[in-house]
Amino acid sequence: MSLFVLFFLMVLAGFIPALCPELLGIEAHPPDLWAIIVLYVALRSPGYQGVGWGIVVGLVRDCVSLDPLGTSGFVLGMVAFLFAEGRHRRGRVDGVYRASLVALGVLVACWVYLLRILPLGGGIVTFGLFVDAVPTALWSALFALGLYPFLDRYHLLDDLCGRTTRALPA
Amino acid sequence: MRFRRRHAWGAALIALFALPVLKPDGISFIETPVADVVLWPARTGLNPERWKGGDDGDPDSARARKLERELYQVWELHWDTLTKVKDLQRLRAALRSAKLDRLPKMLGTRVLMASDPVPTRRSITIDRGADDGIEVGQPVVMGPVYLGRIRVLRSRSAIVQLVSDPRTRLEVFVRTDKNVLLRGYARRAGRREGRDEMQIEFVRTKDRVGRVLPGAPVFTANFDARVPAKLLVGTVSSVSDPDLDRMPILRMRPAFDLDRSTDAVVLLTSDTVQSPRGKSAATPSR
What we know:
Number of strands of chain A: 0
Structural class of chain B: alpha+beta
Order of helices and strands of chain B: HHHEEEEEEEEEEEEEE
Radius of gyration of chain A: 16 Å
Distance between the termini of chain A: 27 Å
Mean pLDDT of chain B: 79
Largest interface: A-B, 56 and 48 residues
Oligomer: heterodimer
Mean pLDDT of chain A: 84
Structural class of chain A: mainly alpha
Number of helices of chain B: 3
Strand order of the largest sheet of chain B: 1-2-5-4-3-12
Helix content of chain A: 55-70%
Helix content of chain B: 25-40%
Number of strands of chain B: 14
Shape of chain B: globular
Shape of chain A: globular
């Protein structure tokens, strides 16, 4: 079921900019649902288990965008790697702390993308694009505040995060 | 040093960093099936009308509601067809003004996705692909307005790079107040008031050609055999001081409006030029 939910969220991520209203500039800076999905898995998975799913989500985004294969795969994989638990147990991350990590993660994702395309295209990265990432990160954090408890409550992505509960052996 | 899992992920990320450099055109046999699967909901057109509640048991009211829905659908189809006919008439007038030998073949298409998943890129995904005979580089228009060119081609869909994409470089004509066409080069220049804006440079104004005023139309130039000239690109929103160096920098607002319609037209042009004797020759690629 987690794979189905992941597929649904990725399809929704592609149509989020068209669904956002003009109110408060949301349409100009829609939440980055791709990064939100990757950060949820990275923050909830033990070790570096979320990095692989970050790469997969990034590659799927590359398949439906103008960028060549590997661009978003590297960006979202890097974000998952930076926000993964790693070797040291971090404990449960939730609430406002998790939302602030989401804001930081989306900011990092936008900036890593801009730095990544510099050697590919050149001449199109301006300071304004770096600043433009800030409202996107804020709206993404707000969106995550509503989405993440829903995913937690119904364990919709727990299989991907390696948090399936299994019956104890007899 | 022990080889740990984080080293493996680091190696994978390095490989992904290098992949766009090694394969700048992508890997079609991986991207095509994934794109077809992700775009399948948009292609089937999941209809929210089907999610409405059932009737309250009264057969007359259910029939009345059904007839009302059919009436709205027919009315919508009527206005949609009327809009398409007007757009095609305006497109024909624009292409005739370019004095082409013959009008290009056209293929109607529908916009599946009106935005690029990456926030800084500008593209649309259409429901026509290589199976329908379109090729990379062909222009896409909405009425007489130039949207962009096909950049990524799959078997049943394609991604169009819009004129407002950061990587688009477009040669344009700008009309002065004395009806003279000046050549310039347009590229994206950020956003203003929530809308994308482009910058036109290298427009050389001389005596007697007039001045470029805000509101002046901007058209495609004859830079490529595939893109017909005189297609509307946008309108000038501001002009820098022209007396400074006779090469003012113009700001342009693109004319396309993706909220107005989901129908577009692909112009099935080719890059071979017919010589007067009927022999074709390929134009040099840019």
